[in-house]
């Protein structure tokens, strides 16, 4: 019985009627519906079938496009006077999201110099796959591969493959809050020839975002890397950001980033902070 009422008729005013054609003339369709019985539809008020097909096709294409979200950020600061300083930062992010899962990747770069002498060069990024559990999308499991290089922190390269579980407390347009935790294996090779570190780490992470005004939001992103072998050894990465949307695709962002290492190798300092202003373009 359900199949006999599967045909849909779209009207030019936006209404839609589902039912079965029981009679047709040159000007009118007589449609039997479950809810209101037989309805007479003048053909002149129906959206042509060809247009309906084109609209459905366009809708499907838009849904395919909306699966992908991409963002490029660029920051460049110049300070002159007693000290000549330049800072460059660049970020590329890509996200593919469906109802069941999502893929996301991010690459960050930061280069700075003072009096024409380079004093910072950082590269980091990750690839992450998240699989949603249940219909509410609150719980999820994920796998992640992180990598970074920091010339002036004595890091030739570091990689951390990990597996974990996450939970969304709130996921609204004006407020978001989530936590997750993963178990990973950290491999770090140093530039000065120090012994390579190979150890298991726990990776707890938290993120919170709040819309302050219509076009302004603030966020806090914090990731910890405590060692399972040595309780005195840990790192954390913190980013506090204020972002102002200028248009649908363009925003201005100020970020304060703090990278801390409790036991750095060589002559590296424990704390490394940056204040970055950037222009973001989403597409």
Structure notes:
- It is a single chain.
- It is built from one helix and 16 strands.
- The chain folds into two domains: 60 residues, Roll (SH3 type barrels); 216 residues, monomeric porin ompg (Porin), CATH 2.40.160.
- By secondary structure, it is mainly beta.
- It has a twelve-stranded antiparallel beta barrel.
- Helices cover 6% and strands 66% of the residues.
Low-confidence stretches: 1-5
In CATH, the architecture of the largest domain is Beta Barrel
SS-based class: mainly beta
Q: Indicate the proportion of strand residues.
A: over 45%
Sheet bearing the most strands, described? 12 strands, antiparallel, barrel
Pfam families: DUF481
Organism: hydrothermal vent metagenome
Protein name: DUF481 domain-containing protein
Topology:
Elements: E1 7-10, E2 16-24, E3 28-33, E4 37-42, H1 49-66, E5 68-79, E6 85-97, E7 101-114, E8 117-133, E9 139-150, E10 155-171, E11 175-190, E12 197-211, E13 216-226, E14 234-245, E15 250-261, E16 271-282
Antiparallel strand pairs: 1-2, 2-3, 3-4, 5-6, 5-16, 6-7, 7-8, 8-9, 9-10, 10-11, 11-12, 12-13, 13-14, 14-15, 15-16
Summarize the structure.
6% of the residues lie in helices and 66% in strands. It is built from one helix and 16 strands.
Supply database-style keywords.
twelve-stranded antiparallel β-barrel, SH3 type barrels, 283 residues, Porin, DUF481, disordered N terminus, mainly beta, 66% strand, DUF481 domain-containing protein
